[in-house]
Amino acid sequence: MKKVFIIFFLFMIIIMATGCCSNSLSRKEYTIATGSKSGVYYPIGEVLDKILKEQCPDVTIKVYETDGSVDNLQMLAEGKVDMALVQNDIAYYACNGEAMFKDNKISNISGIATLFPEIIQFIVRRECGINNLKDLEGKKIAIGGKNSGTRYNVEQILGEIGILDKVTCINIDAKDAMEKMKTKDIDGFVFTSGLPNPSIVELSKTVDINLVPIDLELIQKLVNKYSFYFPSIIPPGQYSGQTTELNGLEINAILVSGPTLTENDQYLLTKYLFSKPNELGQAHPRLSKMTKATLRQQMPIKLGEGAHRAHSEANKQ
Ligand code: GLU
Question: Does ligand 1 lie within 6 Å of residue 82's CB atom?
Fold first, then answer.
């Protein structure tokens, strides 16, 4: 009898030490890096917390406001957060040690799911007479915080048309940029974000704005040069005063995790959050187009083993 008890006791210690294959999450709190409160990442972080709580009422996902994708990937790699919402282009650069990550390649992160497309939105004050991207020459434009993903999209796009050094670019986040739009301190701002972005919807009620289209030739060039960009058609009526359909560019927002999340916790979180994408879609309009198939599309970095296990099980159901 005593022997059986000792074996059981040792078995429990091993299970607790490895966290292996437990049916419950190993912690009561997880953290996620998102973006500016005026963006879409932040409220999506809150939605993920809410969805998880429906199944595990005593577990919390604490949401951090950040500069955006570059900041989030750095925080993740340093173990400051367990998960992060990031642009798939920036995640690729991080894991391959390219572009802004050329001196600090990140190798300890893995993908959980692809969530929704983000449009590179060039928003300008209507009175500034900016009808296409070339008109940004000589203007003052906010391009996102220094460690946002937006900033790099702007640099690639304006670089491609040769006007990057002819635009006064300032590094502030979308929230501050919208304040400066009201006081006419800037002519416009850029935000790679879900469409419509609720804060820009609000801004368009008090400031006359235009969403600047990207011409098809430039879209084609950028799509050919950078594998993450996709052409996107922006339906009319996203923002007050936008009456026509516009051409634009999009990338994808993905959820990734870092070294602080065990494989089993990644499996359970993926299972709790994503096994019913339709239900998750009801919690936020940006998530409404997700299906079991889209969750693994355009994931440019290694899909985590726990996430892979959860997606495979969901697909069999
Ligand atoms: N894609 C943005 C970035 O990483 C954040 C977008 C958002 O919060 O809606 O810079």
Answer: no
Question: Residue 41: CB within 6 Å of ligand 1?
Answer: yes
Strand partners for 220: none
Q: What is the pLDDT of residues 212-234, one digit of tens each?
A: 999 999 999 999 999 999 999 99
pLDDT category, 7, cuts 50, 70, 90? low
User: Is the confidence at residue 4, as pLDDT, over 90?
Assistant: no
Q: How far is the CA of 192 from the centre of ligand 1 (A)?
A: 6
Q: Is the dihedral of CA 67, 69, 246, 47 positive or negative?
A: negative
52 near 59, Cβ under 8 Å?
yes
Sign of CA dihedral 157, 221, 297, 117: positive
Which residue's alpha carbon is nearest to atom 1 within ligand 1? Answer: 192
152 Cβ closer than 6 Å to some ligand 1 atom: no
3-class DSSP state for residue 136? helix
- The structure's pTM equals 0.92
